[in-house]
Every structure is written in structure tokens, then in C-alpha cells.
Amino acid sequence: MKINKTIVVLSVVLGTLSACVQENQQANQQETNQQKNNMDNLSAEKQNEIRTTLSGLAKGYATVANPTPILETPKEYGLAYEDVKFKAEDGVELAAWFIPVEGSNKLIICNHPATLNRYGWPGHMEPYNQFQDVEVKFGKVYKALHDAGYNVFTYDFRNHGESAPSEGNVWGQGFGDEYKDVIAAFDYVKSQDNTKNMTIGLFNPCAGGNAAIHAMTERPEYFEDVKALVCPQPASINIMSKIALTGMGMADYEDVFKEEVTKVNGLDLEEMTPHLFTKNIKMPTFIVQVRDDAWSTPKDVQATFDGLTSLKEDDKKLFWIEGTTKRFDGYNYLGENPEMMIEWFDKYMK
Questions:
Q1: Which domain covers residue 105, as residue numbers?
Q2: Alpha carbon distance 209, 234 (integer Å)
């Protein structure tokens, strides 16, 4: 088995964060203008050492190589399904499953977080448990949706699962070309006789939510008839990186890290946040978040929710998951406790 390079890089940085959650969250809430780049005061050798470290970390955020394996299919949940292949507009081939429900005209389009895939995450296995020791099973989400009468179309992003890589394995955490994968999924669904007239809802966690929100900004016409969105664990990558750098004792070199990220994926790290796009969400939205998530802060997620300014109060909801600091527990929550998700979709997809 090949080891996912992203895991190797990020496990070094993030693997110790659970032990110091409170310290990191408090540090992250400090104003960023208090951080200063002290590189000029260091020797050339030390500067090179720091930049090399931050370059490796940046590649972990901005590329995905050796995708995580798919260990389960819908068959393990007693679900009939079809393997699907389709292409994004830039030619990247994407892999998906279509899980039908006889007689249903409702469809949920699903995607996944970074480094995971449509199966989930093999956190019960080496080396993946070094990154996060929680096995994520999105099959439970698909099963719950199917049993509630929803067809499911779930796809792997570029560089993930069984989908093809982008050039250089470049990954924007949902804020790069991944939005093209979201659009391609819509194009595929609308091209098929059995799905083209279905009522659509979205289940888009973490970077998958970022990509969907980005797509809403780039191609709003695709989402005019989408009835509802469920988004577990929305992700501000700029905040996650601050927490990681603080955990490494390298918060003073944030500007260098930003430069290295831009070198890899061409994006401004400070713009890798859903806060810039939430105003473009027009459909009823349900956000689910681990309150004490070691990789994020309640303040940031609350800001994402508060940014849903185009929605009426009754058409947006934020639910806090308590009793854990593990982000990946949030990915499993609705599969293990699907009632709120089903209620949300039922309310808006009648």
C-alpha cells in the first residue's frame, strides 16, 4: 500500500493538536497583526531550514497524491448501485456511485472532505490512523438517505478515491478547480434520463462544502433549483493553518507559509475560507460542527453561519456536536444520527 504523502506531512503537524486543543484555539484567536515575520533576523541556514519545513507543509495543504483507498461500497450496506465515470470541463475524469430508489424523484448529490473519499476514511488502519484515528463511513449517510426515499449520487473529487489526478496533483481545498467537479456532477445528473428531472439537495462536508459554495459563486445558475444543503464541518483553511503553525511553534512565519501555498496552488491562503462565499448560498442550509474541533474554532464556524445573509432565519440552522475534539467525529455524526439531516431534507424537498 502506498502512503498518502498528505498524511505524512500533516500528521507531523496536526497529530499533536488534540493534546493541546485549548492552547491552540486561544492562540488562534489572537489578532493576526500581532504575528511578525522574523526571517530577516535569522541566519541564512536557519532561514533555509524554516522555508523547507513550511514548503513541505504547504504541499500537504495544496496537493493530494496517492489517494486514500476505498474500502467499502454501497453493497456493504445492502444497497444496489451503479459505478459511474464522467469528466469535468477541464478533462479530469471523476468516479461516482449512483444509488437508486425505485419510484423516488428526489436526489442528494454528495461529496467529501479533503484526503477522504466517497467511502470515507480508514482511520482504523496504519498509516492513516497517524493522521486521524477515526474510521469515517459515509455509507451510513447513504443508507439513511436511501431508506428515507432519496436517490444518492456521490463522487470522488479530483486527486481523491478513484478519480483522476489534476496536473501536479494540485488541490485548492475547495477553493481551486474543485468547483469544476461540482459542476460536472450537476451536468452528469442533468444528462441522464433517469435523474435529469429529479429534485436536488446537497450533502457536502468540509472541503466538499467549500467547493460547492465556490461553484455557487462561479455558476449560480446551476443552483437555482437546489432545495437544501447540509454541510458538516465547514472549513476555513486559513484558520486551520494558523492552528497548525501555532502547534509547530512557527506562528511567526505565517507569511512565509502563505507564500509557499501560493507557489503550489496559486491561491491566497487568506481567501481560502467560506466566509467570502456564504452570501451566495440561496438554498436552506444546515451546518453541523464539532464545537471543540482541534482543527478549527467555534468563532470561525459561527462566522460562516452568520454569513448566510441571503437566507431567512428559519432557513438556516447550526448544530454543535459536543463531547469530542476530533474533527472526523463530525463527519460520522449524521450517519450515526441521521434524524436531523432527514428532517431538513424532508422539510424542503417535498
A1: 74-348
A2: 6
